[in-house]
Amino acid sequence: MSVKIKVDDTLEMMLIDNHHAETMYQLVKANRQHLREWLPWVDHMRSVEDFRKYINSSKQRYANHTEMGYVILKDQVMIGRLGLYNIDLINKSGSIGYWLSKEWEGQGIITRCCKAVIDEGFSYLQLNRIEIRAATANVKSQAIPERLGFKKEGIIRQGEFVNNGFVDLYVYSLLKKEWQKPA
């Protein structure tokens, strides 16, 4: 899979690496309240060292062919993360996860980045199924798989522990044969 994916004229995704730790820490710190509403890991990431450890584990999962974790860059500035996680090459499946700095929401950035990662997953990795999970109350996150033609399969009851409580998750999936890259 590509180390760098050009999404469009201003957007690219780069495989996460050690030199991203400080910038990622600052981005999460500036967006902590915004991100913690739906992401269980935010409160545990309190230092640059926490991000270094996370990046090292992400790189190990990359080496094991179970994760492709990218930073999203707009005009060379980091604005979020997107990755293909829980890659299972035997069953030819994976899951997309994402987050974006609050100031960049609502501009179609995650949708465009998802298209690029879906193309990579279906072509390069030869996956058959990609899924996205979103909390049942997180309407913004649900809009992305719906816009991309994913099918809503059902609900994982109390599937994630966020902010000292369990949230239900919708599961969306897209099969390789269903993927028509939107224009």
Protein model, in words:
With 183 residues, this protein is α+β, with helices and mostly antiparallel strands. It has a domain at 4-129: 3-Layer(aba) Sandwich (Aminopeptidase). Helix content is 30%, strand content 36%. The protein has helices at residues 21-30, 32-36, 48-63, 109-123, 139-147; strands at 4-6, 11-15, 68-74, 77-88, 93-100, 129-135, 151-162, 165-175. The longest helix has 16 residues, at 48-63. The protein is globular.
* N→C terminal distance: 22 Å
- The run of helices and strands is EEHHHEEEHEHEE
- Report Rg: 16 Å
Helix content: 25-40%
CATH class of the domain at 4-129: Alpha Beta
Return the average pLDDT rounded to an integer: 92
- Architecture of the domain at 4-129, according to CATH? 3-Layer(aba) Sandwich
**What best-fitting shape do the alpha-carbon axes yield?**
globular
Tally of helical segments = 5
SS-derived structural category:
alpha+beta
**Major beta sheet summary:** 8 strands, mixed
Instruction: For the largest sheet, list the strands in their spatial order.
Output: 1-2-3-4-5-6-8-7
pLDDT below 50 for ≥5 consecutive residues: which ranges? none
CATH superfamily of the domain at 4-129: Gcn5-related N-acetyltransferase (GNAT)
